[in-house]
Amino acid sequence: MNPYVHLLGRILLALIFVLSAVGKISDPAGTAGYMQSMGLPGILLWPTAALELLGGIAVIVGFQTRIVAYALAVFSVVAALVFHHNFADQMQTIMFMKNLAIAGGFLLLASSGATALSVDSST
Fold it and tell me: H helices of the chain, where?
């Protein structure tokens, strides 16, 4: 496999998590309020932002790729179930399916590992 294509795939998979974490960190009150409106404690904002930011960066650089990919796959499915379960709303259905597709991408990444252009490949 072309290592540059694999790197681009990792970047594209992870970018949504890095940007989402930045958004959460830049508006913690709004994010905590939204989480509370969905029945979750607002304090989960910080571990969520940490997982998204650090996990996203780890995937991009290819550090502990398999473990992080599994974690983000599980996170994506849980987020779909918690936040996008209103299937009467077409947009929520699309967001649910998007999360499942991202989880599928992470499962593929977990099965392949990070390949050549990664921290993992040098260990």
Answer: 3-26, 28-37, 45-61, 65-83, 90-112
| Predicted local confidence at residue 5, as pLDDT | 93
Residue 116 half-sphere exposure toward CB, CA atoms < 13 A: 7
Residue 38 phi, psi dihedral angles, 5° rounding = -100, 10
pLDDT tens digits, residue range 10-46? 999 999 999 999 999 999 999 999 999 999 999 999 9
**CA 101-3-14 angle, 5° bins:** 35
Instruction: Give this prediction's pTM.
Output: 0.93
Please state at what angle helix 28-37 crosses helix 45-61, rounded to 10 degrees: 110
- Cβ-based neighbour number of residue 57 at 10 Å: 15
Name the DSSP class of 42: G
